Amino acid sequence: MAKRIPFIFLKQFLFWILFFQLLRLIFLFYNFNEVLNTNFIEVLKVFWYSVYIDISASCYILGFPFIVLLIESLIRWRGFYIINLWYSYLLIFTSVIISIGELPLYREWHVKMNFKAISYLSQPSEVFHTAKWSELVFGFVAIFGITALVIYLYRKFVHVRFILVKRNFIVSFLFLITVPFLIILGIRGGLHPIPLHQTDVYFSKNNFINLTAVNSQWNVTASVIKNMRYKNTNPFVFYDLEDAKTTVDSLYSVEKDTTQLILTTQKPNVVLILLESWSADLIHSLGGYDSISPNFEKMISDGVLFTRTYSSGSLSDQGIPAVLSGSPTLSYVIIVNQLDKYVKLPCIAHDLQQQGYHTSFIYGGQLSYGNIKGLIYYNKFDDIFEGKDFPSYIPQGRLGVHDQYMLQTWLGRINKYPLPFFAVAFTLSSHNPYDQPFPEIFHWGGDARNFINSAYYTDSCLGDFFRKAKTQKWYNNTLFILVADHSHNSPRNWMIYSPEYRHIPMLLFGNVIKPEFRGKKFEMPCSQTDLSATLLAQLGLKHEKYRWSKNLFNPYSKPFSYYAFDGGLGWVETDNYFVFDQSQNIYYEVKYTSATDSAKVNHNGKSYVEMLFKEYLEY
């Protein structure tokens, strides 16, 4: 008996449902350590709750085959069979790539595949350099192995040669009027007034479980569409524009300027060290583990430490403009990737250059990562030195030149710079794949073990750098600034959106700091974006164009910190904070001392991001 069209269509629908569950099972096996720390009943529930969004994804996919099947039922042509077959092949292959690609992504960032991650594929060499060989081999084998297996099963049990399908005009008519309705119903998640959202499959207080339930392919598609839409639309509109503007203006207004001048000179050399992925959990004085960063700890006693600094974003191409330009990170978009927008940002290197400073930037890897190179070159640093510029005899890892060799090279170059200078170094070794030439010191830490060992290595390199720098003539007239570009998962396994995860070190250090300020700790909530205004104020320079940066040494500056994550924002004040996901309209975490504070803090944070995104659109 000839196969009927509805039966063929139903088989394809069931195939995609089972296929998505297979990919979900792979995700669970890959993250087996998380599964072990999870209620097993909740793990099983994932496969039930996820069907809701899998149906939606399957219906999206079946839209095209529906049209093909409909036409084929009326017109016999072998080409329809070929078209539908290769359409399915392509989607199987793409789906496997997404699911396998997000396995190391989740382990590193604790997020599912999204637009931000896909945007980095424009630099494929960076992907190869940052991934471990084992991850690359596993990835390629898994992608092609799973694709081949699934295609084999698809051809054997699902796909039918359309040319053999019996034509039936009555069935075709019924098919035409019922299936489109069912597809649309499946896509939007039923007859509810509000269409399906990925949070509709959330059922647990465990974020890992909820993310497992989310369909990766559906999530990627939604993320791409949303990001493209928000290139011209503000997703963070909460209040009347004037109301939001008044609130933000009040956050940055100061009654008077009584800046505490902590330096012995207004024109020191400035050395800025951007610490790749350093979390506050690496530093004992910030509530972190003991013994991971002993050299950094020694510097604290002779410097000024900001104990409640939060990273604006979670990536280097967000953290570097945050530090150099006082530019806060935005959800959905990355300003440094957009030529027409990042040229509107100020830069402390440019301002110092106008004051006679020689400016430089050194990095052991490729500055093309995230278009950091564009930002650096646009601001005309006098000396730019990256991975390809190092002599070939210097040992390199997968990502680039290890920190010990980068810092040694940097010291030699600094010794030749004219005075005064503004020299920036961006460390590298505390970034995956953690292949530093150093023995493993710590044998604990779970998935973060390699990370904390790499941080210990970088700390030892910093210790060696400063021991040698102290012998140089320029040392006594130099202000050193150490700040992380962003944070990283630690053995404490904070949620990526939590304030604890975003907590980073920021330290000012050097003999140019007045004795009475050495060892002092400032405990106001602040951001790495505040470094721009703070530094320029200490040098007696204007900083008004750093709209989103505040002078931390002015006692009248308001204590707050903003940070962004995919879809939302975190807002921290002295005794209150909230973490709000705008894309899902839910609060992940809140802490308010009173109902009055709750309203005020929300108004401050939401007004802030509303005006910030508005400015981005106007650039």
Account of the protein in words:
The structure is a single chain. 47% of the residues lie in helices and 11% in strands. With 619 residues, it is an alpha/beta fold. The protein is globular, with a radius of gyration of 27 Å. Strands 5-4-6-1-7-9-2-10 form an 8-stranded mixed sheet, with helices on both faces. It has a 4-stranded antiparallel sheet with strand order 12-13-14-15, covered by helices on one side. A 3-stranded mixed sheet has the order 8-3-11. The mean pLDDT is 91. The N and C termini lie far apart (65 Å). It is built from 22 helices and 15 strands. It has 2 domains: 5-229, no CATH class; 241-618, Alkaline Phosphatase, subunit A (3-Layer(aba) Sandwich), CATH 3.40.720.10. It has helices at 5-30, 32-36, 40-49, 51-74, 78-109, 115-119, 124-130, 133-157, 169-188, 207-213, 216-229, 241-252, 294-300, 316-325, 339-342, 348-353, 372-378, 403-414, 449-469, 499-502, 531-538, 595-618; strands at residues 269-275, 303-306, 309-310, 358-363, 383-385, 421-426, 478-484, 503-504, 506-509, 520-522, 526-527, 560-565, 568-573, 577-581, 586-591. Helix 4 (51-74) runs antiparallel to helix 5, helix 12 packs across helix 22 and helix 18 runs parallel beside helix 19.
